[in-house]
Structure formats: structure tokens, C-alpha cells
Write a structure and sequence with these properties.
mainly alpha, Four Helix Bundle (Hemerythrin (Met), subunit A), 5 helices, 2 strands, rod-shaped
Length: about 150
């Protein structure tokens, strides 16, 4: 009895289904990872801004040094995260004095925090002034990460 190996092998090769080539996605993987990273960072910064905003409301109501310290610590944490993610030192031009050199946002935040500290420690400062300073700081923080 003779076995015909060549004939059997040919029929097996003919019966195989062709392999479909893998389609490349329209968005490269690197771009996908980058966009997800940016979304994650935005979520982190939005959560930090919400926490800062809540602490700012507490500060405006209580006007205690303890709440001011917590608020400043939250700002410091925000700025450290911004620096670690490479978002710090974005520049903005002053709209009030066009001849003035470009100011660094981090410096502006520091100046506003010093003014806020003075306002909280002054006995006659209105709550509306403190709220205005808090909103200004919040705006600078949002401009920093967007």
C-alpha cells in the first residue's frame, strides 16, 4: 500500500483560509496614549481646582488663619503638580499696561496670595473683596493648566 503524501499535502494547503492583514487604526497608538494622558491630567487639575474652590468658600466664611493655611497648601500642591506635568510657566500679557513685559502666571498667583493673606488678616476687609481675590486666583490656576 503506497501513501501519496504529496497529494494530501497539496489539498490541505488549498483548504486553508487566507489570513487577513491587520488593519491599521486611523489614530496611531502614541496619539491615543497622549490624548488619554492629557484627559487624565485635566481630570486631576479639575479635581484640585474644585477642592481649592471649596476651601476658598470656607475661607471666605470663616476668615481664619488655619483655613488660609490650608488654602495656600492646596495652591502649593496644585503648582507642584503643574510643574511635574510640565504645565507651569505659561506666559500671559498684561491687558492693563501693554508696554509692561510679559508676566509669569506663577508670579501673579504668588502676588495674589500675598494680597489675599493681607485681606484675611485685616479686620475691616469685606467678604466680597476676599471672594474677588479667590476668584482671581482660581482664574489664574485654570489658565495655567488649559
Amino acid at each position: 500500500m503506497a501513501i501519496k503524501i504529496e497529494q494530501d499535502r497539496g489539498t490541505v494547503l488549498e483548504r486553508r483560509t487566507p489570513v487577513k492583514p491587520v488593519e491599521k487604526s486611523s489614530v496611531p497608538f502614541k496619539n491615543f496614549i497622549q490624548s488619554e494622558k492629557e484627559n487624565y491630567q485635566a481630570e486631576i487639575f479639575e479635581a484640585l481646582v474644585a477642592e481649592i474652590d471649596e476651601q476658598g468658600r470656607r475661607l471666605a466664611k470663616s476668615r481664619t488663619v488655619r483655613d488660609l493655611q490650608i488654602y495656600k497648601r492646596l495652591i502649593k500642591d496644585f503648582l507642584q503638580k503643574a510643574v511635574s506635568y510640565g504645565l507651569a510657566l505659561s506666559e500671559s500679557h498684561s491687558f492693563y499696561d501693554p508696554g509692561q513685559p510679559v508676566q509669569i502666571v506663577v508670579k501673579q498667583i504668588d502676588e495674589r496670595l500675598l494680597a489675599l493673606t493681607d485681606d484675611v488678616l485685616k479686620a475691616g476687609t469685606e467678604s466680597i473683596d476676599i471672594l474677588a481675590a479667590l476668584d482671581e486666583i482660581k482664574g489664574l490656576l485654570i489658565n495655567l493648566y488649559r
